[in-house]
Amino acid sequence: VARRGTEFATKPCPTGGRVRMLTLSASRVVLVDHIDERAALLGEALEKQGFRVVAILRSSAEILARIDILAPDIILADMQAPDRDTIEDVRFVMQRRPCPIIMYAGSADSEAIQTAIDAGVSAYVTGDIDAGELNSVLDIASARFDQFRGMSDELLKSKAALDSRRAVERA
How far apart are CA 75 and CA 38, in angstroms? Predict the structure, then answer.
């Protein structure tokens, strides 16, 4: 399955089956970080690993106006203190142009983590993201995103089948 320029490969899963992994060369990444030095280091690490960093933004609000132009395959966002606006921005992105979103934050508050995941964040990392772990975090986020999309698609199919059955029963 391909998603807007993102290619996937599969590898064996230790528990059986296969796990889809991102093929890095085609992945367009938007990086959101208010600390310029960290953003530059992450951007460099991403590019060394084969990603295309299409934008480095200072706030999640900036992505809202540019989401269609940037067309990200992945969003990596620093949110030191995820607030209601940030969570709404994530919800907007997931409705407008769904893609894996990785949030890294200083807060390990379980309520903040759950709120972010409920909004559509695919991976939530507490503390800074280590460049050496970047591929693993991106692979996990992509797999979780695909899992969520699959469940959402199944739910839509089930609702449509139920509506169809109700229509037949009324007739």
Answer: 15
